[in-house]
Please model this.
Amino acid sequence: MSDSVMTSTREVLKAQLLIDGSDVDADSRATYIVRNPANGTIVAEVADAGEVDVALAVQIARETFESGSWRRLPPPQRGEILVGVAAAIEANEAELAHLESICSGKPISDCRAEVRGAARYFRFYGSAVNHLTGQTIPVNASGLDFTLREPIGVCALIMPWNGPIAIAAKKAAPALAAGNSVILKPAPATPLTALRLARICEDAGVPAGVMSVLTGSTRELGQQLVSHVDVEKISFTGSTATGVDILTRAAAGIKRVSLELGGKSANVVFADAPLAAVAKSAIGGVFANSGQDCCSRSRMIVQRSVIEQFVELLAENASNVRQGDPLDPTMTLGSLISSDQRDRVLGFLERSRADGAEIVCGGNVISAIGLEAGNAIAPTIVTGASPESEIATEEVFGPVATILPFDDEEEAIALANGTKYGLSGSLWTRDIGRALRVAREIRTGLLSINSDSSSYIQAPFGGYRRSGLGKEQGLDGLWDYTEIKNIYVSDQ
Model:
């Protein structure tokens, strides 16, 4: 895909695969269409990769890894190149954010923030590679025992559509820092920034063949990558059901697997919390990206004595959200990713209403300039649902907050743990003792106290239970792309 085509805003973009440093058609010459989910216009005609393309990309990645052109480069030099990638991402912020917005339906301001986040991942891991150290270990023998951290090999990085460039960077930066070869497989709906990111990496000095991109319209593409004998590590972000399928397919090859899966995160609000501040924060914590966020704090658990006041405050804030054309920088919310996702969200709401729940506000499709495709849903608040109901326990992946009452700490903890997930969450109280007691008992990989922010590049990210395996971000994210080799040297 040429830079001139990538920067066009009037024509339908043409996107090829990126293999061994070259833009190539799929072997079958098949393509598929990407549409803007907000207004329905055609954005791009994209190469639709198949099994032959997977075989070629993996072969090139394996050969490049074995040649050592990247993995044998001293880690500080790899780090310098990744820092250069960060600078190039920042220099291309406007273009990358535009591509992200027209494919995902996300507000352009959010997309700009995520592009800046992608740059921070490359800058962080460009520096973190200097900590790619081993240990010397005292053993019951004369000589020296020490460890090395070595790259795993060919890594398949499978991204979702809800945070395409940020999650691509979250995976690619540590994988490259560790010396691996990588194949990016973006979601069918959001392929353009992955292709642009890979080209930026090559322009900054990552050797051709170290980073390839396979775009495609079907689940089979990802399954073929996971099953390929020469793919040794899979990192996937997406649904729990797909994560189960990946684990099953990876088992035959004893492949290394990292999974960042679904969530139904709790937002526990005690009566002593600053309710106005919590309700304001919840607009981002629950409804950002139209709720299409695995960390969305959509299971709001509020102490009964203040629940009516809190619902009123949250509804007032929700009614003031600006929702419209994603390319308008004043908009807070844009569109869901597709009509299928819209229908899924509306189905949840319809079934919850039939079960006796009340839709306090929202729940309707938004009509506005820039949202002509009809895939945008207003921020929605649901009360009166059973704690065991579908809408209270399953991931809706839409702008829906389900509010449940509790009376005491024990009940709050039970409700917070009352799903199969354990990814993220928030806890609001002025009582530090209570905060520590409750935080220790909530089974989740990330938890913020008196905040809706718990994910930071410097800190490990990953869930409990059916929310995933392994850790991303921080130094843990770097270690996850390495093997530890132990060496003993006798002095005899």
In short: Residues 1-9 have pLDDT under 50 and may be disordered.
